[in-house]
């Protein structure tokens, strides 16, 4: 779907290509860790049976200190957007942009109009609760936000709560921030739904594993429209495995490495005089470079795929998103040729 000037269905995977270093997709591991692959392989002999997500629900609830009734496993965060768009009973939807475009695409596919709340680059894409229309009964915000990498304070998010409104906080990248600060996942808050994804940290985009945390009546409404068995047995196995203490400790360590690599990338970009948006906290950065489309093409010729920014509502052709990786000196050297 192309909406106005924005191709809401464009994603970083369309930008990668043979022989290119992938800085366009934000999945951090090139493949799932060995212990997770073993768990997945071990469940294959049980695939004759229909999936049972009971263990996944228990494990996710324990991981976040929630009740089982607060948890709905989904086929990735993406399925959660569709369930919320169709079953939340909303009539006036606000989407805080720039952000991942699938929530808006899901709302439009459900036949609902979308009010875009555009945050401003000039103040580092700061979220101002007053900018969200009072009558919005379903509000989508990302934390940390893709593509801006900005982490909104939990207190600011709470100020978006209002009677008769469901606030949806997409925390798909929060496990990539050490200590998971500003999360709303750990408490049952009236009118708040939190979305999580296992895709990014564990390198399992192809498996489709995510979940919603919300009040039991919201979970029940979403479950009522979820296709039967949409979460497969391997996805449920991954949910259990990735919710355990060992996985959480490993995720925290990966997040620390990502934070260190983020600091190195941002420092390198600033040395080149490149404008970095906001205060990046997620494992990607948004940069503004005049003539970014041309720079992006040149980087491709030099062997690096970065993500265009102009498909995100609120951004234009001067923006690029760059994924954090551990070794980016070659990329920064290539970029130096094209900026300044
Ligand atoms: C902010 C954000 N939320 C959700 C998703 C989708 O996650 P999943 O793979 O769990 O559907 C993405 C994928 O890029 C994303 O960037």
Could you characterize what this model shows?
By secondary structure, the protein is an alpha/beta fold. It has 11 helices and 14 strands. It has helices at residues 34-42, 54-64, 76-87, 102-109, 154-158, 199-202, 216-225, 233-243, 245-271, 292-301, 329-336, and strands at 2-3, 6-7, 21-23, 71-74, 93-97, 114-118, 138-142, 166-170, 192-197, 210-213, 275-276, 284-288, 304-308, 319-323. The protein has a 7-stranded mixed beta sheet with strand order 4-10-9-8-7-5-6, with helices on both faces. The model has no long low-confidence stretch (mean pLDDT 95). The chain binds pyridoxal-5'-phosphate. Pyridoxal-5'-phosphate (PLP) binds next to helix 3. Pyridoxal-5'-phosphate is lined by residues 76-78, 100, 142, 146, 170, 172-173, 197, 199, 205, 210.
Keywords for this structure?
7-stranded mixed beta sheet; 17% strand; alpha/beta; 340 residues; 14 strands; 5-stranded mixed beta sheet; 34% helix; globular; binds pyridoxal-5'-phosphate; single chain
Strand order of the largest sheet: 4-10-9-8-7-5-6
Nearest-angstrom radius of gyration?
19 Å
Helical amount among residues, as a percent range? Answer: 25-40%
What is the tally of beta strands?
Answer: 14
| Poorly predicted segments | none
**Mean of all residue-level pLDDT scores:** 95
C-alpha end-to-end distance: 36 Å
Strand content: 15-25%
- The helix/strand series, from N terminus to C terminus, equals EEEHHEHEHEEHEEHEHHHEEHEEH
What ligand species are in this complex?
pyridoxal-5'-phosphate
**Helix-strand makeup class:** alpha/beta
Query: What characterizes the major β-sheet?
Result: 7 strands, mixed
* Helical run tally: 11
Basic shape: globular
């Amino acid at each position: 779907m192309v909406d106005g000037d924005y191709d809401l269905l464009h994603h970083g995977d369309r930008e990668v290509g043979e022989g290119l270093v992938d800085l366009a997709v934000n999945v951090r591991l090139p493949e799932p860790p060995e212990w997770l692959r073993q768990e997945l392989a071990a469940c294959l002999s049980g695939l004759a049976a229909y999936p049972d997500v009971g263990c996944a629900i228990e494990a996710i609830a324990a991981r976040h200190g929630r009740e089982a009734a607060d948890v709905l496993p989904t086929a990735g965060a993406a399925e959660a957007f569709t369930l919320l768009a169709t079953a939340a009973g909303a009539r006036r939807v606000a989407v805080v942009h720039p952000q991942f475009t699938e929530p808006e695409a899901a709302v439009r596919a459900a036949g609902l109009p979308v009010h875009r709340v555009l945050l401003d680059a000039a103040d580092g894409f700061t979220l101002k609760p007053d900018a969200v229309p009072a009558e919005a009964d379903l509000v989508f915000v990302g934390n940390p936000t893709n593509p801006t990498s900005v982490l909104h304070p939990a207190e600011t998010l709470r100020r978006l709560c209002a009677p008769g409104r469901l606030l949806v906080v997409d925390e798909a990248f929060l496990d990539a921030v050490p200590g998971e600060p500003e999360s709303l996942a750990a408490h049952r808050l009236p009118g708040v739904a939190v979305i999580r994804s296992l895709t990014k940290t564990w390198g399992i985009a192809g498996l489709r594993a995510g979940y919603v945390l919300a009040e039991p009546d919201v979970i029940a409404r979403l479950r009522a429209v979820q296709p039967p068995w949409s979460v497969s047995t391997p996805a449920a196995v991954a949910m259990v495995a990735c919710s355990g203490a060992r996985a959480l400790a490993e995720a925290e360590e990966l997040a620390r490495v990502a934070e260190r690599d983020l600091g190195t990338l941002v420092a390198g970009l600033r040395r080149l005089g490149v404008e970095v948006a906001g205060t990046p906290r997620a494992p990607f950065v948004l940069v503004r470079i005049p003539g970014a489309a041309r720079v992006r093409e040149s980087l491709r010729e030099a062997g690096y795929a970065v993500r265009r920014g102009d498909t995100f509502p609120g951004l234009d052709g001067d923006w690029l998103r760059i994924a954090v990786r551990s070794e980016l000196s070659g990329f920064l050297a290539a970029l130096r040729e094209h900026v300044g």
